[in-house]
Design brief:
This protein is α/β, with parallel strands linked by helices and 340 residues long. Helices cover 37% and strands 26% of the residues. It has eleven helices and 13 strands. Strands 7, 8, 9, 10, 11, 12 and 13 form a seven-stranded mixed sheet that branches. Strands 3-2-1-6-5-4 form a six-stranded antiparallel sheet, sandwiched between helices. β7 and β8 form a beta hairpin. α7 runs parallel beside α8. The chain is elongated. The two termini are 33 Å apart.
Length: 340
């Protein structure tokens, strides 16, 4: 993300958000481990970077929960009150912004020198503006980094052959016991000139061809090899891997999945296949046979991003999954005003 540049769309969205709730000052902030960068600043004093620990938004990024202070001298914490008084601010509202991986990367921050109570409906509006900003930031990042030009067929094929596309692991936690029960393998590309590239910047190119099958099989094989090591100490751990729906349309799709893990000696019963891009799969006898074969081998089948634009209840009947993974654009509203 180019922190020195912004776009008219980002500025307009931040300005509309401030107008919608009557706040005089609005900011779009992006935070890393130590610093807050202000990409858009409407109505406030000039600023570009601030030490993160000295900002109001630090709490919002750490907790991932929106913050509202309608009356600075009444309902602010001691730390908030000190920061508000220092800048002559009476009211403050901040909504977290999340990146593609679901991690909080910044805030939509509103401030005013007078008291500005916010209703539940107004907070819901701000959360909707935040969702728009997340999409705009992602596009801004991809265009600024040139990532929209990444991923020719030759680039991806060469990187697979050279072992540059590898799995990264995200823990899966049982919320009842807070115990780690498994890991999800997520593809990452160690690009020779771009550095670490996330799936959003190369998987769409792979999905435009049969290369997505090769990417999936490579990540599955590497992840299963790691899982074999972990099973020495935790044989109960499960592995979840993203698999394109194209595997189910390929004549040898199930056989390829089985062979990908054969050398690791990890049982398919320990693996969940998280199906992506299933909207392109045509229902029919071949699909039904492949689903049955996958289950017969012991794999569990999950539907990825259920609740996104293309998903429907028909997919539950056609694919008969063992579970669903709710789309992140829905789960981000859990424990927020909009989610209630």
């Amino acid at each position: 993300l180019d922190l020195e540049a912004t776009t008219p769309a980002l500025r307009s969205t931040v300005e509309f958000a401030a107008r919608s709730v009557g706040f005089a000052i609005a900011q779009l902030n992006v935070l890393d481990e130590d610093t807050q960068y202000t990409l858009v600043n409407i109505g406030g004093p000039p600023m570009s970077t601030v030490v993160r620990a000295d900002t109001l938004c630090d709490d919002v990024v750490r907790t991932g929960v929106p913050a509202v202070v309608a009356h600075g001298r009444v309902d602010a914490t001691t730390r908030q009150r000190a920061l508000l008084d220092e800048n002559g601010i009476e009211s403050y509202a901040s909504v977290p912004l999340r990146g593609r991986e679901g991690l909080v990367i910044g805030t939509l921050c509103l401030l005013d020198r007078t008291s500005r109570p916010l209703s539940n409906d107004q907070m819901q509006e701000l959360e909707q503006f935040a969702s728009v900003l997340e999409e705009q930031l992602d596009l801004h990042r991809r265009v600024g980094s040139g990532s929209t030009r990444l991923g020719s067929d030759n680039d991806i094929a060469d990187s697979l052959a050279d072992g540059h596309i590898v799995p990264w692991f995200q823990s899966i936690v049982d919320l009842r016991t807070e115990e780690i029960v498994g890991f999800e393998a997520l593809a990452r590309w160690h690009h020779p000139t771009r550095g670490l590239v996330v799936p959003a910047d190369f998987v769409p190119f792979a999905e435009a061809s049969e290369l997505i099958i090769d990417v999936d099989l490579s990540v599955l094989a590497q992840a299963a090899a790691e899982m074999k090591k972990w099973h020495v100490h935790r044989p109960d751990l499960r592995l979840t891997v993203n698999i394109s729906g194209r595997h189910l349309a390929h004549p040898d799709g199930v056989g390829q999945l089985e062979r990908a893990i054969a050398s690791t000696e990890v049982s398919p019963k320990s693996i969940s296949l998280e199906l992506t891009e299933t909207s392109s799969v045509t229902p029919g006898p071949l699909l039904r046979k492949h689903i049955d074969d996958v289950h017969r081998l012991g794999f569990r089948v999950l539907l990825d991003d259920f609740g996104s634009g293309w998903s429907s209840l028909e997919r539950l009947v056609t694919l008969q999954p063992d579970g669903i993974k709710i789309d992140g654009h829905l789960t981000r509203f859990i424990d927020t005003v909009a989610g209630r």
